[in-house]
Structures are given as structure tokens and as C-alpha cells.
Amino acid sequence: MASEQQYLDLFRTGRALIDEGSCAPLNACRQAAAEALAAHGLPTRHTERYRYVDVEAALAPDYGLNLRRALSPQAPSAAFRCSVPGLSTSLFVVMNDVVVPAAPGAAPLPGGALVCPLAEAAAAQPELLSGRYHAAAARTYDALTALNTMLVQDGILVYVPAGTVLERPVQLVSLAAAGADLMSNRRLLVVLGEGAQASLLLCDHAPGRSRSLTTQVTEIYLGRDARLDLCAVEETGERNARFHNLYVEQEAGSRLSAHAVGLSGGLTRTQADVRLLGPGAEVRADGAVVAAGRQRVDHNLLVDHAAPRCASDLLFKYVLDGAAVGAFAGKVLVRPGAQQTLSQQTNANLCASPEARAYAQPMLEIYADDVKCNHGSTVGKLDESALFYLRQRGIPEAEARLLLQHAFVNDVLSRIAPEALRDRLSFLVENRFRGVASRCQGCRLCS
Questions:
Q1: Cα(234)–Cα(202) distance, integer angstroms
Q2: Nearest to 291 by CA among 346, 244, 243, 355
């Protein structure tokens, strides 16, 4: 394919510059990723996990890349605010795919915890990356992961040692903003030791007017009895395409709570592979999506129950207006010997206009006999009787529709902790339904 070849040609001609702006652990994985991409190519609509997205079209434009790692003289952290009232966070900023240096005098994280660029970690503590960077992501071939691995030059490491508890959430704000069409390749590596606990807030924004293409690969390793709360919020624009591949490996007794809130964007695709490797591991993943115009949102999840007494709970709800398209595919795999598995999977879609489209594909693949697994999906429109009930009580139709739509996604929002973050996201979702742009106090970048 032409899209695939232009990136392979770029890698071949710019390899020296790509390596120069990166570090040894990342450089060591490039060649194998390029060879895999050349051998297998990009996915098509006939590829099962990509049947609802045209990857070739998304990657076809001639995007620029910041291979020399230039950072705008204007510090974006000084102009941009992504704050949550009542919530204090440890803030880190990525401008396109360049990690912005921390503000002078920033307080270190407690207990030996570390948040830093991958290049910095490779130079100071290479053992933190060894056996982890591109380990989970390399277990199966994925074209977007291969593309990212081939071109990525840096990323962020979040490391929490065994027994350490981070009281304040770590907030990673990623900005896609450039004066020309730009491709950004981001990497995130999260490692929690035995009994460690942390919260991670990922905020994606695109205040610029140019087109942007973002690939991101996130690898998460949770040690025995570790706890991670992960919340990802996207508020980009219709000229943005974003592919995020998430790989999670959980040891015995670990617990992951993952929340995805999509407020606006262009083409957004999230693919998650979660492996429950030890007895008693648990994952709870949910998503609330508000899409309109010609926005396309695609979630594709695989939960691999490889050990007994593990639990998974998936809940995804879409509200689709205009000509928006939403797709959800969730597969729960219960391997032989993974007895006493508990799994629940629910996808519900609300089409607020006749042109909106929803595609649902919940799946179960079970090779054990002592399990409790359920899955279901619905696609519908606003309940006319509920709408009539509200209007009969003096509520204008537009306000009644807003109330019903907000109530529809509130099941997902109610799962989010802490309360300050839950309230803020509920406010943003309400503003999204009202068509009102939200700004954080003091922000001078986005409109």
C-alpha cells in the first residue's frame, strides 16, 4: 500500500536521524518492527480487529515528523491549562511527541517513584526498561504498534516501586499543536511493583488548526496486588486521527480500573489487550463517548483470562449524533484451567439522529466449565415516552433531550474516582451536549 510504503521509505532514509534523537532500548526494536510492517502490511477492512476503520485512508496524507526533536520556544505548560477543580495532580506535558522539561523546583514523587522521559530512564536506570519496553506489545503483530515502534523517539516512564502509594494522581497532558500537518508517535510505559498504588490521568488535546496523526502505544505492568486507576480523556478536533494501542499484563491479585471519556475528535481508535496472568487479578474497563458530526470512534478490547478466579467487567456507552459512527468490539477469552472466572460485558448505543451509526460485536470464547460470563449489546434512540414525560412537566424539549442523554452515560461516569474528577467530567459531558466549549481557568491555548 502507498501509505505503508511512505513510512517504510521514511524510516530507511531517516534511520540515522531517528536513532540520533532516541536511546538504545528504543533503537534496538526498530529494525524488527520495520521488517514486520513490510512483511505483513497495514490492516484492511478484511482484518477482523480493524473492520470498522480505514487505516489506509487515515495514514495516506503526507504528514511531517519532528525527527530533530525541536520544541517550540513558547513553553506550552505556561499557556495551557487542563485543571480539575479540587484535585491536585503531579503534572507532566508532552507537546506533540516531545516531553516538555519539568518546571524548575518541581517536587519529586515519594517513595522512589519516577516519572521521566524514556531516554532519561535509559541513561540513568536502564534496568527499569529492560524486559519491559516493547515486551507486551511484541507478543502479537499489530501494524500500528509496529509503525509506532519503528518511528518513536521517546516517551514517558511511570514507575512506582513495590509498596509505594502515590496519593496525588499523575497527570499526563498531551498536546497536538503545530503550524503544519504533523504526525506524532508517543510511547508510555507504566510499571507498578508489588502492592504499589497509583492513579494516572491522561488528557489528549489538539488546540491547533492543522491536521494531526497520533500513534500511541501504552504498556502497563502490574505486580502482585498492585492497584492502578487509569482515566483517559480526549478532547481533540475533527482534523485529528488518533490510534492508541494499550497492552496490560497483570499479576495475581492486581487490579486495574480503566476509564475512557471521549468528548470530541475526528477519527479515534483504541485497541486494548489485557492479560490476567495470576489468580485473583481483576480489570474493570468502561467508556463514555459523545460523538457528533462525522466523528468516528472505535474501541476494540481483548481480555485474556489466563488464570483462575479472575474477574473482568466491561461497560461502554456511546451517544452518537449527526453522521457520527461508533464501533465496539469486545472479546473475553477464558483459557483452559481459568476456572471460577467472572466476566460481564455490556455495550449500549444511543443514536440521537437518523444518520448516526453504531456497530456492536461482543464476544465470548470459553474453554473452562466453571465460569460466570455474560455479554450484551443494545442500539436504540431516545425513549419517546420518557421525553414526553419530561415535556409534560414543563421541561423544554432541548433540555429534556440533554437530561436523558446525560443520564444514559452517567452509569459510566459514576464509576470514576475521585469525586472531583467525576464531577469535572460530568460537567464537560453536559457542556458537550449543550454545544458549549469548555475552558480551564487561565488556559490561553484552546478555544
A1: 8
A2: 355
Nearest CA to 302 among 373, 358, 214, 362?
Answer: 362
Contact (CB, 8 A) for 411 and 314:
no
CA distance 362 to 314: 10
Asked if residues 7 and 42 have their Cβ atoms less than 8 Å apart, the reply is no
Cα(119)–Cα(153) distance, integer angstroms: 9
What residue ranges in 193-226 does DSSP mark as E strands? 197-205, 212-222
* CB neighbours of residue 321 within 10 Å: 19
For the record, the C-alpha cell of 176 comes out as: 497536538
The answer to whether 286 touches 314, Cβ cutoff 8 Å, is yes
The rounded distance, in Å, linking the Cα atoms of 90 and 77 is 13
Query: CA nearest 154: which of 179, 123, 112?
Result: 123
Cα gap 444→378, rounded to integer Å:
41
| Residue tagged 514507575 (cell numbers) | 159
Task: Express each pLDDT in 155-188 by its tens digit.
Answer: 999 999 999 999 999 999 999 988 889 999 999 9
Q: Give 235's contacts (C-beta < 8 A, 6+ positions apart).
A: 203, 204, 205, 206, 263, 264, 265, 428
Cell of 160: 512506582
The C-alpha cell at 66 is 519532528
C-alpha–C-alpha distance, residues 251 and 249, integer Å:
7
**Tens digit of pLDDT for each residue in 380-406?**
988 888 887 788 888 888 888 888 999
Contacts of 343 (CB under 8 A, 6+ apart): 303, 305, 311, 312, 313, 332, 334, 364, 371, 372, 373, 374, 375
What is the length of the chain? Answer: 447
* Burial class for 163, CB neighbours closer than 10 Å (0-12, 13-18, 19+): middle
> Is this structure's pTM higher than 0.85?
yes
**For residue 447, is pLDDT > 50?**
no
For Cα atoms 81, 82, 86, give the angle at the middle one, nearest 5 degrees. Answer: 110
Query: What would you measure as the largest C-alpha separation in the chain, in angstroms?
Result: 69
